[in-house]
Amino acid sequence: APAQPNDFIEVFAKIFGEHKGIRKGHAKGVCATGDFTASAEATARFDAALFSGSAIPVSYRFSLAGGNPAAPDYASSPRGLAAQFTLADGSKHNIATLTTPVFGAKDPENFLGLLQASVPSADGKPDIAKIQAFRTAHPDTQPQAQWLAANPPPWSYATAEYFGIHTFYLVDKGGEKVKIRWHLQPKDGVKGLSAKEIAQQNADFLDGRLKQRLADGAVEFDWIISFGEAADSENDPSVQWPARPTLNAGTLRINTSGDGSCVNINFDPNVLSGGFSASDDPVLRMRSPAYAISFGKRLSGQ
Ligand code: HEM
């Protein structure tokens, strides 16, 4: 049977417990504010208002994947960076990215199956053999886990690459619809926790480390767009594209963190400004209704 949006909300509650009034996914996180300025190359190639070249205000949220608001900051899980751009005409553009270059499954059904296999047994512990059996039967659920096993969690929210993962389209100045994916490249460089730091089990350092870093000036990411070729997957977020020609579309800048500015934002990744459109990736499609349910619940204290 096709997975339904509310199936995810229900299985998150089974895995992570019920936490009223907060996000059902990426429950732990911190708001930040700043802006985005497109590069001259992006302005020259695209008419999209997002790439006009003038500074556009942005609301951000950094987060840890999963529905546990007390998830430890050394956890081997994806980190998230969501951004909402407010264009000059008031329209919005959202992105919501992960530190893994691929997602945990190729479609909503396999992601749901993996989550259902991860629900703790009666003893409160996940059944590792069951999860392994699901991964063996569904190879698309392996690459993200392999990436997480091979890469330490980020030392700071400012020292991770964040991947858009899905395919999107963008109309260029010639009217051609270009197939793209993107990632955010940290100007501070990529740095993970050392084995020693992980072993220290410090559960809460990411918010403080970001704030401390911002005291020295803005944190910046380059928005790197990759141009897909005919063979590159449009609908499978568990498969990474090979290295492709890229364009640096501009700079995301973060100036402040720790206020409440993102609490009432739904970073629905299908909210796109003029010139952009979403692919038929079924995982991307599922995100809008699932986020809407989570948003409605948390705004109403559920
Ligand atoms: C079927 C697949 C997915 C489901 C069911 C799902 C579910 C959710 C839910 C329920 C939330 C909380 C929304 C809110 O209350 O505002 C959330 C947040 C988030 N998700 Fe997903 N998600 C999925 C796939 C993805 C993918 C593919 C990515 C990245 C490419 C992603 C990145 C994020 C991020 C960064 C947040 C936090 C946004 C924020 O800070 O408000 N998710 N997800």
Automatic annotation (TrEMBL):
Per the database record, which ranges form the Catalase core domain?
Answer: 1-299
Cofactor(s) needed, names only, are: heme
**Any one biological process term the GO annotation gives:** response to hydrogen peroxide
Domain of life of the organism in this record? Bacteria
Return the EC number: 1.11.1.-
Listed under GO cellular component are: cytoplasm
Q: Membrane-spanning residues where?
A: none
Q: Which residues bind heme?
A: Y291
Q: Tell me yes or no: is Signal among this UniProt entry's keywords.
A: yes
Q: Which GO terms describe its molecular function?
A: catalase activity; heme binding; metal ion binding
Which keywords describe this protein according to UniProt?
Heme, Iron, Metal-binding, Oxidoreductase, Peroxidase, Signal
User: Where is the catalytic site?
Assistant: H26
Q: Which InterPro entries match?
A: Catalase (IPR018028), Catalase_core (IPR011614), Catalase_sf (IPR020835), Catalase_SrpA-type_pred (IPR024168)
Coiled-coil features, chain-numbered ranges: none
Q: Known PANTHER family for this protein? A: CATALASE
Q: Quote the function comment for this protein.
A: Has an organic peroxide-dependent peroxidase activity.
The similarity annotation says:
Belongs to the catalase family.
Q: What is this protein called?
A: Catalase-related peroxidase
- Source species of the chain: Rheinheimera pacifica
